[in-house]
Amino acid sequence: MTLQGKVALVAGATRGAGRGIARALGEAGATVYCTGRSSRSRDGAVDPKRPETIEETAELVTADGGTGIAVRVDHTEEDAVVELFGRVRSDHGRLDVLVNDIWGGDALTEWGKRFWEVDVQQGFTLMQRAIHTHVITSRHGVPLMLDGDGGLVVELTDGAFSGYRGQLFYDLCKATTIRLAYAMAVELEAQPITAVAVTPGFLRSEAVLDHFGVTEDAWQDAIEKDPHFAQSETPRLVGRVIAALAQDGDAKRYAGQALTCWDLARDYGVRDVDGRQPHWDDHLDAAIDAILDGGVPTQDDIFLLTIRKLQIDFDDARAGQRERIVDFLRRHDAGSA
Q1: 3-state SS, residue 60
Q2: Is 33 marked active-site?
Q3: 57-85 pLDDT tens trace
């Protein structure tokens, strides 16, 4: 598989999935524009708690076999985005892969608060960062793709389900990126461009590794703290499945869909950097069944069941599992139907 001669742009490439995607596209030989706000060119990164920069990502892309180009861009500023794609056009005259992975919402998401308790303006700022930026970037990036040979547009999301993600603004942002992919696919139907949404699994991002107090080399040490971490993946896995998508001559069969990293990895035969191929849905279904078939649940069990119940709302394929969860929670006086 090769993306030699192809040009990609990953918006939000500073860290996490964005960095992993940029690196994987570089592995496949692409020239990758790595954009974001955290840059060595400023006095300190935008997020003072995180050391990663777009320049570091670009260097990793080049080390992995591609050509990394770092460009500091605030994607909430439309003029800056227009200038960005003007540069890509001037430098290369084409764009083959566009990935929207801008987030910037961890500090803004008020977990544990009901919608009538949240800071509305804080939520609107989150939407501006996680939704408006994607619209602006696609609006000005896709015309460059239309002028060339077409390509792939990817919206990064969290979960491919239709149910609730536990917090109003977080849910709006992640569900909307899926809807954006669908809407773009409808309007691109007659064009040689495929738009999809992709979710990673349990991502071993830099922040997650720090949360567990482990490094990537010793990530398995955290499994004792969270058994589900055994099914985690590096950010490079979602990058590798997107690189595979970008090389698939029949990618249009996926147009407008919300795709999972774990299913695509199986479909394309892609593996993580350690050779693993974790499948989050299989793992979670087995974990849920074990709780439902077991004895007295722990608080962690109740939490997982409650979250899963919300996720699989409207999922006809898992209607039976949802009914079992609701019945279990009622019998144990936990959660709500």
Answers
A1: helix
A2: no
A3: 999 999 999 999 999 999 999 999 999 99
Q: How many residues does the chain have?
A: 337
The token duo for 258 is 């919300």
Token pair listed for 118: 């949240």
Query: Which stretches within 213-279 are classed as H helix?
Result: 235-246, 261-268
Q: How far is Cα 335 from Cα 328, in angstroms, rounded to an integer?
A: 10
d(CA 31, CA 19) in angstroms, rounded, equals: 14
According to CATH, the topology of domain 7-278 is Rossmann fold (3.40.50)
Return all residues near 125 (Cβ < 8 A) that are at least 6 apart. Answer: 108
pLDDT at 336 over 90: no
Q: Nearest to residue 167, comparing CAs of 131, 126, 200?
A: 126
pLDDT digits (tens, 9 = 90+) for 170-192: 999 999 999 999 999 999 999 99
Give the HSE-up count for residue 287: Cα atoms under 13 Å, Cβ half-sphere: 20
Q: Which residues of the chain form CATH 3.40.50.720?
A: 7-278
Nearest-5° Cα angle at 153, 150 to 154: 155
Catalytic residue among 164, 170, 182, 268: 170
Radius of gyration over alpha carbons of the chain, in Å?
20
